[in-house]
Amino acid sequence: MTRRFGLPPSPAEFEALAHAAFARIPQPFAQHLDGITVHIEEFADEETLRALEIDDPFGLTGLYHGRSMDTDSVWISGEFPPRITLYRQPLLAEWCETEVQLEDLVAHVVIHEVGHHFGLSDEAMHALEDEVR
Predict the structure, then answer these.
(1) How buried is residue 8: exposed, middle or buried, by Cβ count under 10 Å (0-12/13-18/19+)?
(2) Which of 43, 11, 42, 38 is nearest to 25 (CA)?
(3) What sections of the protein cross the membrane (predicted)?
(4) Could you give all domains of the chain from N- to C-terminal order, each with its CATH number?
């Protein structure tokens, strides 16, 4: 989105951007994304920020919740399905402070969090992001 004026994108618009980013993730990764849900919150809660040792709520734009595939097992049950939470206000602030388009910013965060689902290193996440572009 290249809007510079008017109302900021709604949570529903953020969710649509996140789903569009998911749709661009290539195989063989895409086949392993079923069941991951996307949630939009304004900011991370105090408990999450404290656990991650983040003082500024604008310092967290997204978070993967769940067990990575490299540690998953058929013997594990009773856990919630994996999910990605995008934090709308920090993303809006970053969008306003940079020249990055909102679609690209959301895709970057989604791909980074998907990388955690696969247990990927930061280098592998950057390679996946480059492939999606």
Answers:
(1) middle
(2) 38
(3) none
(4) 11-132 (3.30.2010.20)
